Amino acid sequence: MNSRSNDLLVDAIANDGYAITPDFLPPHLIKALADETKALHAQGALQAATTGLSSRRSADNVGLRGDFIHWLEDDLASPAQQGYLAAMRQLQQDFNQALFMGLFELETHLAIYPPGAVYRKHLDQFQGRAERQVSCILYLNEDWLPEDGGTLRIYLNGSASEPYMDISPTGGTLVTFLSGRFMHEVMPSRRERISLTGWFRTRSTAI
Q1: How many CB atoms lie within 10 A of CB 19?
Q2: Mean pLDDT across the chain, nearest whole number?
Q3: By the 8 A CB rule, do 199 and 132 touch?
Q4: Distances from the Cα of 97 to the Cα of 90, 92, 165, 207, angstroms
Q5: Where are the alpha helices (DSSP H) in the chain?
Q6: What is the DSSP letter of 22?
């Protein structure tokens, strides 16, 4: 990721509230991250994701969200994960310098959606909590085709069903958007769908 690309990304967030950045990381790093995610899943290291602040999946969760996740920890990060985290630290710095956002950390996890799994329409900020400021989704899928589905659908006018934008989860693409502004959902896919999903956070703030 070069500084010019980061500048364009930050400008898009400032102007539109979202940005779509192809080739955010080089292909070899995307492949390494995808391979690690698959290996962790095979080892049983990914856990069924929950919704809201709950740490336990309920019967309702299954219909709302079907992915499996593994949180990253800086001190346990592999070389590929360190490459990703370094790029995100630079992006965080660029956001703070240009937009004075006060971002101080990134929480991030690997995610696998099995074929057919979804994440229904939601907002990334929890009710009454405004720490999550910028959502960041880096896709790790090789040779993704339109017929594979699995798009990220972003609703551009609050909770209204239209207009919306569908974004293909093509490997190397980074999608960023203001966490408290855009409702969004993950549409079902015909293939396993892999991503690194994270949020730049400010310090605890009640809303």
Answers
A1: 21
A2: 92
A3: yes
A4: 11, 9, 29, 24
A5: 3-16, 27-42, 59-64, 79-99
A6: T
